[in-house]
Structures are given as C-alpha cells and as structure tokens.
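Cytochrome P450 structure dump, as promised
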Amino acid sequence: MDSSASSRSHSFHESFLMLSLALIILTISLIAQLMMRIRIWCSCEICQTFIQSRWTVRFTNLCDWYTHLLKESPTKTVHIHILNNIITANPDNVEYMLKTKFDHFPKGKPFSAILGDFLGRGIFNVDGDLWRFQRKMASLELAHVSLRAYSFEVVNQEIDRRLLPLMKSLAKGREVVDLQDVFRRFSFDCICRFSFGLDPMCLELSLPLSEFAVAFDLASKLSAERAMTASPLIWKTKRLLNIGSERKLRQAIKIINELAQEVIRKRRKFGFSDQKDLLSRFMTSISDETYLRDIIVNFLLAGRDTVASALTSFFWVVAHHPEVEAAILEEANKVIGINSNLTNYNCYEQMRELHYLHAAIHESMRMYPPVQFDSKFCSENDVLPDGSLVKKGTRVTYHPYAMGRIEEIWGSDCSEFKPERWLRDGVFCQKNPFEYPVFQAGLRVCLGKEMALLEIKSVAISLLREYRVELVRYSPVPLFSPGLTATYRDGLRVLVSHRSMNYD
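structure tokens r here:
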C-alpha cells in the first residue's frame, strides 16, 4: 500500500472514530435530557394516558382529548408534566399571557429553534426588538389602502380566472376533488403574488406543482414534525449528521432560499419603487437579502395555511348545515342582487353588509380554528390569574379549539354551530378577543386579519352562489393531522354541481 492510500485509510478511520464518539456522546446526552426534562416516570393519570395513547379509545383527535381535560378542570387549566406544558382555556390566563404580562411570555428559544431554519428571523419566530421592528413596519404597510386594494385585486383575479373556471370544469365532468387541496393551491397563489409578486400557478391543475410550492410544503411539514419529537436533541442530532428528515428539510429550504434570493436580486436590478407587492415595500427600508427572505417567508406561511384551513372548515361545516347555506344565499340576494356579482367598485361596501356570512365564518373558526393552539415560554417564575404556578422555562399553551367548546364562555349550546350567536338585531358583533383568540389577541394580534377575512368571504360567497358543494363521505367529526395549522387528514373530498340562479 503506498503512502497516499495509507494516509486516506488512516483519515477514514479517524473520521469514523470521531463520528462514533459524537454519536455516543449525543446518545448519552439524549438519555440524560429525556430523564431530566421529560420525566417519563410521572405516574399521574393525565401523563400516563398521554404516554400510552389511551386517549385514542374515546377521542378521534388529540385536541378533543385536551378539550375534555380542560372542560373538566375547575380552573380550565391542566399541566402535562412529561411535556413541561401548562395548557389553558381560561380567558383570564390568555389575557395575562398576551397582554398583561406580555414580556414574561415570549415565543421563547425552544420554539425559535424548531422553526429557525425555515422561518429565520421573521416576525413569527422572534421576540424583543426584532419582533417590534417588523411589527411596526408590517403594521404601517398593511394599513395602506393601496396595499389592501392590491390584495383584493389579487384574490379576485384568482377567483375569476382560476378558481371558478376550475369549479366549472369539475361540475361539468362530475369529478370528485379534494377541496382542501384546491384551497391550499389557491391561497398559495394569492399570498405569493401579494408577498413576492410571484405567481407559482398552483391552481392550474394541468401543470405540475412548482418546485417552490413543493419545497415550501415539505419545509413546513418537516419543521412542524420537529415539535413532535420527544426531545430537541433527536432532530438536532439528525441535523448535525444531515440524515433522514433533516436532510430533506435542508434541501427544501435551499430551494426556497435560492428562489427568494433570485426574486430579490431581480427586483433590485430592475427596480421596485413602482411595484405593489409586500416585498417591494420592505425593500425600501431593508437591504439585507437574508432578512428580507425571512420576513417574506413568514408572511407566506401565515397567509397560505391559515386561510386554506379556515376555508376548508367553513365548507365542511356548511355542508353539514344546509340551513346556514340557505341563509347565506338569502342574504346575498338582498345585498348583492340575484343577477349581480361582486365588483371591485362596491365590494368593500357589499362585504360589510354580509353580516350573516361574516358571522358564519367566525362561528366556523370558533369550532375549527386554523391554529388550534399556540404556545409561549415563561421567562420568569410567575402565577397565572387562576392560581397556576408557572416556573421559568415552562411552556404555556392557550387552546382556541378547546375554548370554543367551553360552556362558561359560549353557553350551554356551545357544541352547536350557530352563526346567530354573533348577531344582534341582524348586525355582527365582535366577541372578547381573549375568549376568542383565533387571531391571537393583545400585542400579537394578527395584522392581516381583515385581509384574510375578506379573502375567505370572497371565496365563500363566489363559490356558494354558483355551485353546490356536496361531501362525498359524511363524517360527524373531522380527523386532523398534526401540524402548525389544522389540516384534515383525509382532505375534503366533494362533488361540485352548478346551482340555478334562484338558488333552489
């Protein structure tokens, strides 16, 4: 064996030994971490039910088991010791976390680490000065009438040029379609155009999904899966070794970064002062390309998944309540007219007058919020208003899904779908945001709330006025997949048919 071959062999064995040693150290650290933080020896009923998955005997979804626990708790708060997680459906606690002691309950480093590779330093993944800076900028930009008008223009073009023609084709062929997939494609097209000025054409079903859309979906899914591992050391080890899901995540994020950088550089080269999209507006104040990428990817995630989830649940629940569908159409007849369509000129006024539709959408999100729970990490030892002790570093989760089913908040009929609960003399009345934190509340309340609602209402009324949407398979309870937003595990398979103009 020559000296060079001997050297390569020695180098290989040395690398192998170093890798083996690293794996041994990480394994020992993982076991220690599990023993210290996860407390697998906890013998309380709740923890044992969680560990052994005994909750699946009675409940379809984990969120339904949490709801059961919270409803049974006198304080509407429970502690999952093995997860070091306090979960609450108590509005006083929610207000305390999101407003009164806002600085004591940040997103926290554990959460930021989970989504850090995907979302970077974007608004939904940071605290402190970085968050305040982006919040202020976003608030100013999203308040501009011109930006809201551009958002509405994008949504209406997607509806008229893609969504309705697609529905027409499906109705003609009597084809079964996954409406959840349609809404995810639709909302991704909209938010990409609004945020980037980029059209991925996801709703063109004759075309394959763009590489960017596929990469974005995968990055979102794999990032969410990090949060479900028993310990962060598991995914951190896989990331260090660049194996399995972490290797796929790295590849997906690389594709996202490359496209984002290309868009930013082209915009800078050819000018952005006359562009309407959000990226161009941020580029007037920020030059750091990585920071711009992070900000826009955060808006893409928030604007796509939440809107698609809200639309999916709305059509699921309306299909189960034909009387609500009839009331929505009756209101549309009076406000818009039987033979008239929504127009750019008077749409805002017409939408404001669709009080029952607005109520039905809010009621749908009460029962099926796009984000079923949200967590913060306590930065100091504290006591919640209900008396729950919170140690520094504890994860504290408020649960909008469960809160929508609490009798003390919504009354004895809280399990019923009743848009009327949002109306007073036929006029929509907003509820206490700390009892209904679907759009968060307090200092982190969703800045895009009004634009999201306008998009949801525009799609809902446009489809319902022209088409009947019939579920292929009846299900009394949706089955959700784990993730950052509520996703129907089996999709929403429907048959679409034309509706006569008198809505019979």
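The chain has a mean pLDDT of 87.
lmk if u need the other ones
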